[in-house]
């Protein structure tokens, strides 16, 4: 039976949930017109009924019992914006088992249990939509699934964490050191009180694993992703990078090579002319290389109540179209295999290295010999005038196997003429 | 009856058509797997059977009679890549009347007859997909229709013509004048032998009208779009713009205000920090402001065989999903109304003005008085040392009604102290 109104239940009404309510109510006429069917929020499960809400809702809609959403036979679509992993996993599983379509903004959940939940959905003849789990309001999941569907995705590089991009932009543009830029980000609401998941790169790794699963049709384990955060990035390195023609960005990189997948998150030098270098402050962007389309990039706000709500609502509208038209398995889902992941030390990269050496004759020769012995060839060298007998040297290598480069670093660390190895960063072109 | 194989007929096998054939054959396993149904190219109508093809195809597929595609009851999807307006319009109309889904890459056609063809499709219970008509491989139509479906689109600004962006980039980066940069673009294959539609802005205006129709759900007439090309942009203006912190780009701008739509294409000064300023050479990008999502941008190659083919194939896959699942009216189509368009002289803008004046006491005062009398206030002024008694003056105004600004220009033109008015460009922030 085709429906006149499709009823929605919300789990959670925090930042994203409030955005969803605001958009669905504010743009309801427009949305209903496009869909040819009305959308109605029937129930909202929250933890604390008394908490003040960013958006006014009829108190009768609120409940503190998630079952009032999950078990209500009138509710067709369950929107999960409560966050966390285990409770959300159970709730979504129950929703699917009760025949509901699910929309979620939960990246931790999708990174850990995405493939499993998509499989449950398939068994139930339902779907999970998760556009909002990566890149906030920026369309990423849907373009990967549909717009680039005829492509083999070769590689993507993303700025998919707004906090770290804000910090790196502040360091670069305002000449702040990391700690000061972090404090600024916290003051501006772009970093949380506990920023560790963002600044250590874990948030980006979760999102990378969701994007890589979809791009490469492979079930990614979060531990397969190599992760380095930005806590050790120094203002000095950002300045040297600029001198060399690069910006420093926290990039999440996924690539499919003949031997397997490459999955890594780390601060990276990227040429100033690259479109990702122009992504400033809290903005996010995903740069994709497809075999047919070539290079495309999607840019926008990676977080926030209304942007993320925009993505959730697009998913709700997709689910509603499927319901309205009684489409079975109308959603393109990849079959997920398990492709091998290439360990970081086997991968090739270019490296940026900053070190301090004793300023005496022959030191540079020794340095060059170490790299030569490890078959690491050098592309760029900067040496500034030495201070108190110590010279700061910045090197950029040509493409080299990471394991080889690390061996060379270990030899350098043992050399008495090398005072300190201060920074090691990867470089992409 | 659900199908195992969906059959496709092509009209035209030039640049885009060849790309489509290459992608559909090269990625057929992957595409069939995702769709759960195979795609087969059954017939390709071409003008000249003997012409050498960029991609090898079984000669038995080729025909010089379009009816072999349009009337074949086995063909479900007709892909039109032959270009031109009237013949394509008739062919697509016949295809729809014969119950076929249509995919087209034809911007001229969609700009002139899009609303009419979409209406025929609706009557027939079929759809026209036209992602490839704007922005080549960049997903634009589908994101506007689906990903941003819950948004009210407030404004968009696009670099949607690769030829002019290539020329402006060459002028800016390599210090070439327009004519030299155009010759370079022609040598590189980024400009046609007759480049007039590109450099005069008409190509961008066609694409703008397609995007605006969709964004604002209004039937746009091509004559409602104000158009200025880049033929009068001087290297000197690009240098002054850089000095003032701007790049010069040919922007297609669409905006919905309370009083009506604003639709204009012209060379524009845009701040260097704006993401559109970083779009170089033949690349295209569309920057969109939605009421919920905020600012998003889509970037990529706006032309070329495989990029445009990628968009066509995504459309073919969408049509195939609809066919496979026997979805009726499963595509979100706006109802097109006719919204008023605000004439250019009623619109507000900031202006960049370069002029030459006699270098004598009181001239600047007279100039300032003319602007003051027309209520045009000035934001920035550059005056370089005068040469042989003539001073070059560059002005940037605050926001002003275009009609008022033109009145002031007319007064300036009559002033003996003003030697020449060399450039007038619009400025966006």
CATH superfamily of the largest domain in chain A: Dihydrodipicolinate Reductase, domain 2
- The low-pLDDT segments of chain A are none
The major beta sheet of chain A can be summarized as:
11 strands, mixed
Q: Helix content range of the residues of chain A, please? A: 25-40%
Would you report the number of β strands of chain A? Answer: 17
Could you name the CATH topology of the largest domain in chain A? Dihydrodipicolinate Reductase, domain 2
Shape of chain A: elongated
Structural class of chain A: alpha/beta
Q: Output the CATH class name of the largest domain in chain A.
A: Alpha Beta
- Our count of domains of chain A comes out at 3
Lay out the secondary structure.
The structure is a homodimer of 429-residue chains.
Chain A: E1 5-11, H1 15-26, H2 28-35, E2 38-45, E3 62-63, H3 67-70, E4 75-80, H4 86-97, E5 101-104, H5 107-123, E6 128-129, H6 141-147, E7 153-159, H7 162-174, H8 178-187, H9 196-199, H10 202-216, E8 226-227, H11 235-244, E9 246-257, E10 260-271, E11 283-290, E12 294-301, H12 305-324, E13 348-358, H13 363-373, E14 378-383, E15 390-397, E16 400-401, H14 402-414, E17 418-427
Parallel strand pairs in A: 1-2, 1-4, 2-3, 4-5, 5-6, 8-10, 10-17
Antiparallel strand pairs in A: 7-9, 7-11, 9-10, 11-12, 13-15, 13-16, 13-17, 14-15
Helix pairs in contact in A: 1-12, 4-5, 5-10, 7-8, 13-14
């Amino acid at each position: 039976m085709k429906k006149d109104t499709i009823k929605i239940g919300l789990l959670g009404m925090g930042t994203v949930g409030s955005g969803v309510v605001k958009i669905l109510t504010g743009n309801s006429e427009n949305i209903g017109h496009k869909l040819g069917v009305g959308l109605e929020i029937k129930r909202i499960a929250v933890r604390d009924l008394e908490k003040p809400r960013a958006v006014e809702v009829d108190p009768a809609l609120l409940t503190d019992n998630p079952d009032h959403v999950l078990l209500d036979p009138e509710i067709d679509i369950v929107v999960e914006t409560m966050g966390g992993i285990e409770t959300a996993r159970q709730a979504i599983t129950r929703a699917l088992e009760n025949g509901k379509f699910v929309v979620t903004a939960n990246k931790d959940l999708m990174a850990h249990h995405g493939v499993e939940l998509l499989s449950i959905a398939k068994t139930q003849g339902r779907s999970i939509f998760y556009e909002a789990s990566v890149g906030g309001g920026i369309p990423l999941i849907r373009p990967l699934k549909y717009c680039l569907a005829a492509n083999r995705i070769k590689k993507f590089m993303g700025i998919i964490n707004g906090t770290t991009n804000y910090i790196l932009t502040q360091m670069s543009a305002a000449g702040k050191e990391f700690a000061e830029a972090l404090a600024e980000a916290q003051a501006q609401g772009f970093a949380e009180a506990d920023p560790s998941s963002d600044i250590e790169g874990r948030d980006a790794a979760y999102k990378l694993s969701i994007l890589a699963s979809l791009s490469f049709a492979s079930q990614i384990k979060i531990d397969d992703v190599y992760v380095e955060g930005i806590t050790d990035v120094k203002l000095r390195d950002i300045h040297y990078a600029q001198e060399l023609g690069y910006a420093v960005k926290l990039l999440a990189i996924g690539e499919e090579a003949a031997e397997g997948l490459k999955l890594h998150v780390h601060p990276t030098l990227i040429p100033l002319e690259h479109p990702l270098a122009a992504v400033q402050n809290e903005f996010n962007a995903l740069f994709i290389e497809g075999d047919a389309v070539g290079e495309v990039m999607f840019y926008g706000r990676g977080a926030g109540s209304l942007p993320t709500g925009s993505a959730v609502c697009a998913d709700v509208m997709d689910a509603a179209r499927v319901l309205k038209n009684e489409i079975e398995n109308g959603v393109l889902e990849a079959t997920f295999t398990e492709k091998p992941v290439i360990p970081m030390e086997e991968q090739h990269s270019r490296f940026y290295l900053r070190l301090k050496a004793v300023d005496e004759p022959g030191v540079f020769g020794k340095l060059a010999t170490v790299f030569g012995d490890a078959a690491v060839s050098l592309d760029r060298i900067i040496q500034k005038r030495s201070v108190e007998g110590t010279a700061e040297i910045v090197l950029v290598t040509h493409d080299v196997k990471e394991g080889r480069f690390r061996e060379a670093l270990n030899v350098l660390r043992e050399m008495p003429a090398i005072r300190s190895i201060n920074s090691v960063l990867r470089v992409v072109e």
